[in-house]
Amino acid sequence: MLYILEHTRLGFCWWDLLALIVLIVVIVAFVWKHHKIKDEQKDLEDQLSELYANDAVPIESEA
């Protein structure tokens, strides 16, 4: 137990702080990529709706 207390600061090992920094970087990268993909998906859906806007067939009434 004495070894652990001598080699840690505030209950954290130095490797834990490095791992925390890496985790934060990964989370930020994931959120940024997710946001970018959502924007790209919205743009592609808009392009599809513009492409097929004139191809709609009106429904003929049977009466």
Helices and strands in order:
Layout: H1 2-6, H2 14-51
Structural key phrases:
63 residues, rod-shaped
What would a concise description of this structure say?
The protein has 63 residues and is mainly α.
Walk me through the structure.
The protein has 63 residues and is an all-alpha fold. 68% of the residues lie in helices and 0% in strands. The protein contains two helices and no strands. The radius of gyration is 27 Å and the shape is rod-shaped.
Q: What percentage of amino acids are in beta strands?
A: under 5%
Distance between the amino and carboxyl termini: 88 Å
Classification by helices and strands: mainly alpha
Topology pattern, helix = H, strand = E: HH
Query: Whole-number radius of gyration?
Result: 27 Å
Total number of helical segments? 2
Mean pLDDT comes to 84
